[in-house]
Amino acid sequence: MNRLLSAVETLAALSLLLIALLTAGNVGVRYAFSWQIPDWFDGTQMLLGIAMFWGIALATWYGTHIAVDLLWESAGARGKRVIDIFATLVTVVFLVPMAWMVWVKVGGTGSQGTMDLRLPLKWFYSAAALGATVAAVLAVARLVLLPMGRAASAHGEADGEGAVHGP
Predict the structure, then answer these.
(1) Contact 123, 42 (CB under 8 A)
(2) Which positions ≥6 away from 162 have C-beta within 8 Å?
(3) Contact at 8 Å (CB) between 16 and 24?
(4) I want to staple 40 with a disulfide (CB 3.0 to 4.6 A). Which of 25, 26, 51, 116 is the partner?
């Protein structure tokens, strides 16, 4: 699992790095030479989608989606686990069909390409769809592990029953 999570983190980080490099590089060459990098805008849009889906996978596994935890903070250990299970179930209900629909989008892309270089959009969409699928799989895994007290946490802390969470 650690290898999978490391790969997910690496893919999300590389996507963000490429976005930053493309944007900074484009600003530099536009300023210096009045020219721009071909497909820099389309490329950054596609890379942002990839980074988002792979980031969703990480947030799902660690349970770090944006949340209002007013009720969760006041609940006991058992109540927190019930809230976490319910929230993860809702996440699974949304992520599984979303992953399916992203793959449907990949299948419907055909031979479409980016504006300048005509890079196949299918490459970018497939990377994003794979990230959506990994997010759905990690959500299901989290849903299975939560009742046993073995789900991951971004804080690496114990859940009060001896199970340590985190990488």
Answers:
(1) no
(2) 149
(3) no
(4) 26
Question: How far apart (Å, rounded) are the C-alpha atoms in residues 99 and 56?
Answer: 11
State how far the Cα of 3 lies from the Cα of 138, in Å rounded to an integer.
13
Tally of structural domains, the chain: 1
Give the three-class secondary structure for 1.
Answer: coil
Asked if the structure places residue 164 within a domain, the reply is no
Residue 124 lies in a domain: yes
Question: Does residue 131 contact residue 106 with C-beta atoms inside 8 Å?
Answer: no
> Does some domain include residue 67?
yes
How deeply is 71 buried, as exposed, middle or buried, from its count of CB atoms within 10 A (0-12, 13-18, 19+)?
A: exposed
Q: 112: which residues sit within 8 A by CB, 6+ positions away? A: 120, 121, 122
Q: Answer whether residue 163 is part of any domain.
A: no
Q: Find the domain containing 61 and state its range.
A: 2-148
The C-alpha torsion from 113 through 117 and 119 to 125, rounded to 10°, is: -70
